[in-house]
Amino acid sequence: MLPGRRRSGSRSIDRVVSIVFKEESCGRTEMTFAIAAKEERMVDILHRIGIKAPAARVFGAVSTLQGLGHWWTEEVEGAEGIGGRIEFSFHSPEGEFKGKMVMEVREASAPKKLVWRCVDGPPEWIGTDITFELSEQDGQTIILFGHRHWREAVEATYHCSMKWATFLLSLREYVETGKGKPSPRDLKIDNWN
To answer: What is the pTM of this model?
Structure first.
């Protein structure tokens, strides 16, 4: 870390380079070290939503294949436990393949926290983490949602931020009424879906 800089959870040091200079002066050798660091700010998509249901029910909706199929995409398969991989496929209403993502379950602390790592899918997604942090407040379960550690803000980041908002509304609708709007019946926001 560079002097005078505070370390932030959203920063990472990409590369550190050391350079050695030698000077001969009055019969002695002096060495000077210079360190150059490139700091890169990671991009996170963050949302907060309240759902009128107990945290255990909301956690089931985000952590089980059955629950996920009712609010994110109808095409979901895999293993739900720690280390398991869950594959999410997306098609248009006409059946055209739009894409898939594979998430590895990194943490599942019912009913408080769920963390996935994207291990396959669009290049921008690979290596990102998806987090659901749940707490009960005033008769609602509050979800602090994060799609974290994007390498940079690209056009896909903007699209995904809006899509996550619509899918979180679908999650709330599913938990509160029993009927969400998963892909391919999700709210379409632009020409990418």
So the answer is: 0.80
Give the three-state DSSP class for 126. Answer: coil
Residue 22 has pLDDT above 90, yes or no: no
Sheet with strand 140-150: strands edge to edge: 43-51, 140-150, 129-137, 113-120, 97-109, 85-91, 75-78
Count other Cβ atoms within 10 Å, centred on residue 76. Answer: 20
- Residue 82: predicted pLDDT: 97
Q: What's the burial of 15, exposed, middle or buried (CB within 10 Å: 0-12/13-18/19+)? A: exposed
Q: Is 132 helix (H, G, I), strand (E, B) or coil?
A: strand
Report which DSSP code applies to 139: T
Write the pLDDT tens digit of every residue in 121-159.
999 999 999 999 999 999 999 999 999 999 999 999 999
What residue spans define the domains of the chain?
11-40, 42-177
Q: Which CATH number fits domain 42-177: 2.60.40.10, 3.40.50.880, 3.30.530.20, 3.40.50.720?
A: 3.30.530.20
DSSP H helical ranges for the chain: 55-63, 65-68, 155-177
Residues 133 and 144 sit within 8 Å (Cβ to Cβ)? yes
